Prior knowledge:
The protein is an alpha+beta fold. The strands form six sheets. Strands 21-22-1-23 form a four-stranded mixed beta sheet. The chain starts with 6 loop residues before the first strand and ends in a 6-residue tail after the last strand. The model has no long low-confidence stretch (mean pLDDT 94). It has helices at residues 26-35, 53-65, 90-95, 103-110, 129-137, 168-179, 194-206, 237-249, 265-273, 312-319, 339-344, 375-387, 398-401, 407-413, and strands at 7-11, 17-21, 42-47, 68-72, 75-80, 112-116, 141-145, 148-152, 160-162, 183-188, 209-211, 217-222, 229-232, 253-257, 278-280, 284-288, 298-300, 325-329, 349-353, 356-360, 369-371, 391-395, 417-421. A hairpin with a 3-residue loop joins β15 (278-280) and β16. It binds uridine-diphosphate-N-acetylglucosamine. Uridine-diphosphate-N-acetylglucosamine is lined by residues 27, 30, 97-98, 125-131, 165, 167-170, 195, 309-310, 332-333. The site of uridine-diphosphate-N-acetylglucosamine (UD1) has 21 residues, from α1, α5 and α6.
Amino acid sequence: xxxxxxRVLIRGGKPLSGGIVAQGAxxxxxxxMASALLLSGRRLTLERVPDLQDIHTMADxxxxxxAGVNFDKGRMTIDVPEDLKWETPTDLVRRMRASSLxxxxxxxxxxxxxxxxxxxxxxxSRPIDLHLKALVKMGAEIDLEHGSVHARTDGLKATRIxxxxxxxxxTENVLMTAxxxxxxSVIENAAREPExxxxxxxxxxxxxxxEGDGSGTIRVRGTRSLGAASVRIIPDRIEASTYLLAxxxxxxxxxxNGINPEYLESLIIKLEEAxxxxxxxxxxVSVSCRERRWRGITLKTLPYPGFPTDLQPQIMAxxxxxxxxxxxxxxxxxxxxxxxxxxxxxxxKLDIQGNTVVVTGVPRLTGAEVRASDLRAGAALILMGLAAxxxxxxxxxxxxxxxxxxxxxxMESLGADMRLIPDAxxx
Length: 427
Ligand code: UD1
């Protein structure tokens, strides 16, 4: 990780140019790590794991449950003993919502689990009711006591789950549970994100039969005896997209290598609609924006393959500098506009109307001291700082370290002028 300083000073206005390699996807690595809990006396090996705060939190959670986790230069081994603990500690779980991903594997493997209701980014109400409802349908008894989920079962049964909404985490939890439940489970209205496909690859490598991942209907034939496996984590589409948008906003030329362009399709479509030339190659994507302004557009966040909610703050940052008006509608989370107030401090013109933001483009942004409210909002504020005139200080970077590996090194390699500065209290 880049370090634990909580503030960065950015001198904006320099066009970024060059190439970076995409990190492994945080949101793929976390569920794959959780899936190791399905093993007994076996090892799961992961390649291309990003070195991020959230990954360390999940590693600590697995260690607490009894697993041996080794992590070195992108390679992680998780050795899972026959005896596992099934109670998860509040401090780790509240640090990260993705901790809820251990619930299904623990119930499947140990027949019980205790999980304090999880935390995570402050982006609206984020219940786990869909996860719980599905586990009950599979034969788990669930009680909520003193802010924790208590789950137990005398035996899970394969069944048909139909989600009201294609929740990523709920699909992953059910997929992992079904992989260890004998018989055929069917998940309807499943999330279709590439990270789900990566998890299914891991489960197949362990010996479960999984079909249809990447579509809305996933069929799983589970088995009680899953085996040692090795899996490579896919590239991070949100990180890759963030660097492309940094290239756009600084009127530079940026290439992201080691990425499957298909994952970036919804962004590429929107950039082209805005009049930004995009180069799409076998395993890289580039933008070139020298001397250019881009047009305002409309967009709505949706489950994959729609436009990702995790990219909404970053594209909003870019649209703050567009020629004309943009309309952004957030349909995945109910309150993901906390960054709008900070954007305004930098000279942008935004108007929130319910779950929609109307962005009136301005020719230039001005540096200011701003605060990151969550991971992607923090990334977007860094983009704003890189594009703005003068100096910007972004505070509360701890959120950003949860999702962006070597961010300072990568930005500096593209020519950004940014450095960590001591925290306000001198720490
Ligand atoms: C995952 C991603 C997160 C991303 C989100 C949407 C990981 C570790 N995190 O989060 O970065 O922003 O997908 O793409 O992969 N919901 C319920 N009940 C539930 C579950 C979800 O109402 O039981 C709602 C949520 O409050 C939210 C929406 O469904 O409004 C989407 O949530 P979900 O797809 O579950 O996101 P996560 O898996 O938490």
